Amino acid sequence: MQIVVTLDCLDIEAQAEFWLAALAPLDYRRGFDGPPYLSLVGPAPAPTLLLQQVPESKQGKNRMHLDLDFDTEDLDAEVDRLKQLGAQKISEEQSEHGFRWVVVADPEGNEFCVFVPSPILGSA
């Protein structure tokens, strides 16, 4: 089985640059590139991020979003790194059930969470 997450984009090249830089710690690279699609693939079993060019900009809240664990305890530093790449911080740090996270958005406004897992789950 393969999981592909599709992200609608106005500018797939600009979004590819952002997402490749954002996902760099996870070792993503360009894959299939055939308009209106461009895929970003990581090492197996990582899901593929498929960028799909669409004519309209994002409207409303995402019904599905990515939750990214960059394997760091320094959540603020990771959010700052993403902001330097063009992300926008949407929320302050939140926590629940031992998880800590911040909601950010990519340059086209697609929300995603950067999180640090619970220490209990991290040791399993």
From TrEMBL:
Give one Pfam family, short name only.
Glyoxalase_6
Output the InterPro entries linked to this UniProt entry: Glyas_Bleomycin-R_OHBP_Dase, Glyoxalase_6, VOC_core
Superkingdom of this protein's organism: Bacteria
Family annotation (CDD domains): VOC (cd06587)
Q: Which residues form the VOC domain?
A: 1-117
**Which protein are we looking at?**
VOC family protein
Q: Which organism is it from?
A: Streptomyces endophyticus
